[in-house]
Structures are given as C-alpha cells and as structure tokens.
C-alpha cells in the first residue's frame, strides 16, 4: 500500500508552473479516484521562483476545495534545487516512518529522479513511478502508463546531480553541537593522527542516527551521501584526506586486510605502513581498537564485537603488523575505544561460557539466563597473552578514574550511538588512525 505520493512539478515549463492550481486539480483528482491509495500524504515538489516563497495555503485553497480527503494531507515543498526539495520531503517521510512512495513526474524527469533517489535514500524505501504526460493545455493533463526506459543518463549528468547533492548537504548546519574527537595520550601525536568520534557535529537528523553517523546500511535510513558529508566534516576537523580513507568491511570475524595487497571481501582488522592513508574501524557497542607502533611507524584498526573478540581479531591485527612489517609486539600500543561496558552488555548463557573460559571475571551473574559480559577485559587478556605489554594497553574504564575514551556507549546517549540501546536503526561512531607525513 502506498503511504505517500510525491508529485514532481520541479522542472515544468514556465507556462505550466504558472498554472499550478490546474495541474494540481488534475492530479489530485486522479489520486483521489485511485482505489489502491487510501488518503495518502501528498507532497508537491516545486521550484522556488525569483519571487521567493508564496503563501501556499492561500494559493492552493481553490485547488483543494473539491478534494476534502486530501486537503489535510497535502503539502507543497518549494526549493531552489531538486536535491533540497527531495531531502526536505525525505525528512517529512522519516518523521512519520513512511517508506512506500509513489512518484508522479514528467517522463523526462524519471531517470534523473532515480539518480537523486539512489543517492538520498536507501533500500529501506520502496518507490514506484507514474509518468506525467504533458500537453500544451494543462487542463488536459493526464497520468500515463510508465514508458519504456530511455537511454541511461550521461556520466556528466550523474556528476552534476552528485555535485548538486553534495553542495546542498555541505550547506546544512551541524546538529547537536560541534564535532568532537576523543584522543589518547598513549599514541604519540608527533607520529600518528588518530581519534574516536562521538555523535555530535554531523547532519544526520533521524533521532537514533543524529548527528555524526558514519555508516550507511541498506537496513537503515541514512544514505551514503549523508554519511559521506559527515565524514568530510570529520576529515576537516581531524586533518586527514577523506579520499584516502579506508574502513574495515565488518563480518564479525578475524580476517585482516593488509593495505596494498588484495583486499578481502570482508575483514574486521586493517593494517598499514603507508603515510597519509587513514584506516578506521566502526563501533556502536562493539569495540573500535586502534594499534600504533611508533618504532616501525605502522598502525592498525580493528572492529571487535563479541564474536570477533572470541575469534581473536585484536591479536590477529597485531600478528599482521608483526608478520608484514617486522613490528616487535612489545612496541605496539593499543587503545580500546568507546564500547558497551560490562554494566550493560548481556549475552545468552552459551556465549557467556566462552568468555568465562577466557577469565571468570569476564562474566557477571554467570548462572543467570543472560549474564553480563566484559568485552574489554576479554580483549585485554587476549592481547596480554599474545605478548602486548599491559602498560601499552589503554582501557581507561579501569585505568583512569577520569575517563576520556573508553566510555560505555549504552550509558551515554548524549555522546555515543548504541545498537544495544537504540535498536536496528542505530548510528555508528569510528576509531581512526594514520601515519603523518
């Protein structure tokens, strides 16, 4: 069932733009008569004229008088660009948690609109299209059956749309305050650039993703274009090049990518000795772990959830630094980033048993159905067993009463995202590191 209808009048010829009421009357009549659409929300997308915003309510009263079922659910959205208008409508859809949309638009706009949608929406949304057949007399405006697909847009057209979207997103203000980066005193800043992000300073507006979400998924509502803009703002604040940024392709395993070699399809660890390359690991309860060897000038990052922790992803990353770049394990510094703490995180009994085998102190209320788990302690023990010096591991939830990095993500909704706390449409922060030039 269609939940919303978008009528695209953005690029109509000037003579039709000036006859907005007649255009709406024809289309609203068609929508109201369509039995498959039960009083949906209707958004009309128009270009903003040189006269600026007009009083849409007064202007549309004559057009709406005969459509009582739609009168309360119709909204006109005017903007200078298609990107601005469509993003504004997306915000309205997200506020109401709507995802099934019919778009009525001129045939010549269909392929263009699909490019906008591909960049501003994710697979959470479902779109269907109806072509608007235009004739010179707008009173005879008709909804036509979809026409065969035309030729694909040129690369230049796609680049123009991408640029328009990027420019619009760059113009949006930061949400939830300024962008904040947490840094460790253990990693020497004369050699490495590094940090852990928080949730402030980006443009993501959906409550559980607001505001500096740094991961896009087909199951969430934040599109790649928004995440890319959040990353651009982070890169500007931190001082790295977003074009040479590499994030692990998580699979909750222990595979490690060696920068410069063939990239695996998925991996939870990544290492490099290349200067100017920024590598990163995500976390939204899982631990983003950073590694730095100031002697050999090598760095690494790992994503350590409960599965990856048990599979030893952190030591796998250390071992890759040793085998690929000749690092001495005693020189490697390790920092555990913001992650869910043993105060909040639970696992089923069978999974808890595996952590209990690492160290009984990794599990609290072991005999309960869902014991509390200390992912960080398990990670520290496995690292120390592998040869990392205890003094070279920073987990300030136990070493520093004045925590500055290893906060519990679930306990601090103002600072961090948490899958455990927020559910499936959760945001993601990252830990990042690079070798300075």
From TrEMBL:
GO terms for molecular function: copper ion binding; hydrolase activity; S-methyl-5-thioadenosine phosphorylase activity. It comes from the Eukaryota. It is found in: Cytoplasm; Endoplasmic reticulum; Nucleus; Peroxisome. Its EC number is 2.4.2.1, 2.4.2.28, 3.5.4.4. It catalyses: guanosine + phosphate = alpha-D-ribose 1-phosphate + guanine; adenosine + phosphate = alpha-D-ribose 1-phosphate + adenine; inosine + phosphate = alpha-D-ribose 1-phosphate + hypoxanthine; adenosine + H2O + H(+) = inosine + NH4(+). Keywords: Acetylation, Cytoplasm, Endoplasmic reticulum, Hydrolase, Immunity, Inflammatory response, Innate immunity, Metal-binding, Nucleus, Peroxisome, Phosphoprotein, Transferase, Zinc. InterPro entries: Cu_polyphenol_OxRdtase, Cu_polyphenol_OxRdtase_sf, Cytotoxic_necrot_fac-like_cat. GO terms for biological process: inflammatory response; innate immune response; regulation of defense response. Its main location: cytoplasm. GO terms for cellular component: endoplasmic reticulum; nucleus; peroxisome. Belongs to the purine nucleoside phosphorylase YfiH/LACC1 family. Interacts with FASN. Interacts with SDHA. Interacts with ATF6, EIF2AK3 and ERN1. This is Purine nucleoside phosphorylase LACC1. It comes from Nothocercus nigrocapillus. The lineage of its organism: Eukaryota, Metazoa, Chordata, Craniata, Vertebrata. The gene is Lacc1.
């Amino acid at each position: 069932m269609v939940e919303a209808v978008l009528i695209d009048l953005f690029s109509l010829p000037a003579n039709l733009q000036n006859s907005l009421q007649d255009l709406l009357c024809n289309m609203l009549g068609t929508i109201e008569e369509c039995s498959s659409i039960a009083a949906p929300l209707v958004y009309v997308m128009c270009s903003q004229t040189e006269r600026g915003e007009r009083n849409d309510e007064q202007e549309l009263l004559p057009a709406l008088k005969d459509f009582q079922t739609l009168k309360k659910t119709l909204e006109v959205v005017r903007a200078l660009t298609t990107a601005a208008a469509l993003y504004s409508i997306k915000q309205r859809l997200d506020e109401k948690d709507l995802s099934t949309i019919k778009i009525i638009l001129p045939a010549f706009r269909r392929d263009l609109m699909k490019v906008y949608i591909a960049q501003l929406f994710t697979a959470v949304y479902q779109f269907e299209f109806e072509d608007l057949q235009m004739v010179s007399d707008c009173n005879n405006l008709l909804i036509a059956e979809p026409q065969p697909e035309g030729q694909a847009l040129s690369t230049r057209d796609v680049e123009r749309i991408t640029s328009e979207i990027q420019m619009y997103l760059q113009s949006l203000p930061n949400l939830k305050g300024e962008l904040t980066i947490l840094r460790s005193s253990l990693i020497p800043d004369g050699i490495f650039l590094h940090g852990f992000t928080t949730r402030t300073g980006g443009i993501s507006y959906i409550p559980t993703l607001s505001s500096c979400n740094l991961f896009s998924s087909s199951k969430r509502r934040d599109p790649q274009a928004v995440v890319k803009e959040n990353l651009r703002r982070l890169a500007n604040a931190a001082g790295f090049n977003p074009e040479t940024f590499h994030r692990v392709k998580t699979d909750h395993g222990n595979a490690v990518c060696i920068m410069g070699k063939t990239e695996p399809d998925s991996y939870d660890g990544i290492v490099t000795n290349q200067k100017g390359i920024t590598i990163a690991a995500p976390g939204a309860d899982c631990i983003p772990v950073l590694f730095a060897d100031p002697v050999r000038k090598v760095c690494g990052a790992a994503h350590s959830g409960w599965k990856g922790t048990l599979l030893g992803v952190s030591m796998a990353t250390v071992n890759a630094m040793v085998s690929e770049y000749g690092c001495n394990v005693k020189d490697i510094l390790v920092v555990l980033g913001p992650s869910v703490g043993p105060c909040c995180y639970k696992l089923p009994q069978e999974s808890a048993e595996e952590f209990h085998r690492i160290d009984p102190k990794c599990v609290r209320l072991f005999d309960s159905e869902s014991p509390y788990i200390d992912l960080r302690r398990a990670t520290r023990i496995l690292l120390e067993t592998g040869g990392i010096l205890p003094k070279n591991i920073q987990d300030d939830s136990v070493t520093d009463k004045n925590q500055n990095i290893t906060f519990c993500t679930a306990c601090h909704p103002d600072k961090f995202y948490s899958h455990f706390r927020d559910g499936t449409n959760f945001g993601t922060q990252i830990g990042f590191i690079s070798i300075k030039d």
